[in-house]
Amino acid sequence: MHALVIHAPLDLRIEDVPTPEPEANQLLVRVRTGGICGSDLHYFNHGGFGTIRIKEPMVLGHEVAGVVSRAGAAVTDMPAGTRISISPSRPCGLCEYCQQGLHNHCMDMRYYGSAMRTPHVQGAFRQEIVIDRSQAHVVSDSLSDAEAAMAEPLCVALHAMRRAGPLLGKRVLVTGCGPIGALIVAAARRAGAATIVATDVNTLPLDSAKKVGADVALNIADSPEALKPFTTGKGSFDVLFEASGNATALRGSFDALKPRGVIVQVGLGGDISLPLNVIVAKEFDLRGAFRFHEEFAIAVELLNKGLIDVKPLITGVFPYQESVKAFQTAGDRSKAMKVLVNFD
Fold first, then answer.
1. Are residues 85 and 148 in contact, defined by beta-carbon separation less than 8 angstroms?
2. Do 35 and 144 belong to one domain?
3. Could you tell me if 14 and 141 lie in one domain?
4. How far is CA 101 from CA 153, 294, 298, in A?
5. C-alpha to C-alpha distance for 341 and 328, rounded to whole angstroms
6. Of the four listed, 17, 180, 270, 305, which is most buried by Cβ atoms within 10 Å?
7. pLDDT band with cut points at 50, 70 and 90 for residue 118
8. Quick check: is 298 in a domain?
9. C-alpha Rg value of the chain to the nearest Å
10. Could you tell me which residues come within 8 angstroms of residue 91 by beta carbon, excluding any fewer than 6 positions away?
């Protein structure tokens, strides 16, 4: 079966890869659609990010949906033809963090399309894949394959919601409105936020954020002082979701955040210097949000019930034979939100 294999920066190839036979508690799945994530773009454009580099050819991709082709002997609830969204997260279940229910911090995590360990964990941008039964989540017939593949980025947003705590009636600021930031907007609206303000430096992400629930969308590139009206009286926002990974976006939001405000850092941006005097004086609560686990099932349920609509965030779906064009399109934030690849 064909797969999208990265060899080096800008060296993405379509190659034949073998598919193993499913074991008793596994499923053979025909992959239909996969979403291009920011990490996929880093591997494609730069060969990795930070200290994580490609050391060997690796199949990309972890945001995928497909249909069951065949079930292992011990699987009785997933017949052939079942449409599913696939969780790319495969924690060991045995380490101290898994035993505490912190599966996203697993000491032996196998996460699709990741060069964090060697040999690399091969990804899911392939026509056929064998998965554990526990990774499969049934999707509604009302969802397109593209929408079903959006479950993974949505559960990243849902995990950020949990890290923030209750949002009912809260005033929320979201900085960075790429796919994750926009999904945070949608999730915060579903969680009961009273007011949601979103910021970005491009028009398309801001328009998309408004379509999924933002009350106000501010272009910080056009108006660097756009948050100034929200800084009066020691600030206006109860919670900040920082999804850009940009130091200026993070530090520039502090004046608009109320004392004892909660900061949830979702975007990755490397080392950032912070004004500790402000954090101490306003008693901010700074929290990280990394991946997800049980939120995947919640994401699929919200999508199945139509409680969160991801269609406004889907820019386009490319056939896998045009994967390089798909990656190039996904890398232009002025023109694209979520770009997906079709493997049928």
1. yes
2. yes
3. yes
4. 21, 9, 16
5. 12
6. 180
7. very high
8. no
9. 20
10. 98, 103, 104, 106, 108, 109, 293
Q: Answer yes or no: are the C-beta atoms of 162 and 182 closer than 8 Å.
A: no
Structurally, the chain folds into a number of domains equal to 2
195-198-204-207 Cα dihedral, nearest 10 degrees = 10
pLDDT in tens, 228-276: 999 999 999 999 999 998 888 999 999 999 999 999 999 987 788 888 9
Cis peptide before 119 (omega within 30 of 0): yes
Give the list of residues 6+ apart from residue 325 with CB closer than 8 angstroms, or none.
318
Q: Kindly report the number of other CB atoms within 10 A of residue 18's CB atom.
A: 7
- The percentage of residues in the chain with a pLDDT greater than 70, rounded to a whole number, is 100
What DSSP character marks residue 139?
-
Phi, psi of 228 (to 5 degrees): -55, -40
What is the model's pTM? 0.95
Count, residues in the chain: 344
Other residues' Cβ atoms within 10 Å of the Cβ of residue 225: 10
Given a contact cutoff of 8 angstroms between Cβ atoms, the answer to whether 130 and 27 are in contact is yes
Average pLDDT over residues 284-312: 96
Q: Which residues of 54-78 are buried (b: 16+ CB within 10 A; e: fewer)?
A: beebbbbbbbbbbbbbbbbeebeeb
> Do the Cβ atoms of 279 and 261 come closer than 8 Å?
no
- Residues 10, 144, single domain; the answer is yes
Torsion sign over Cα 91, 94, 96, 99:
positive
Residues 194 and 165 in one domain: yes
On whether both 192 and 94 belong to a single domain, the answer is no
| Strand partners of residue 48 | 53
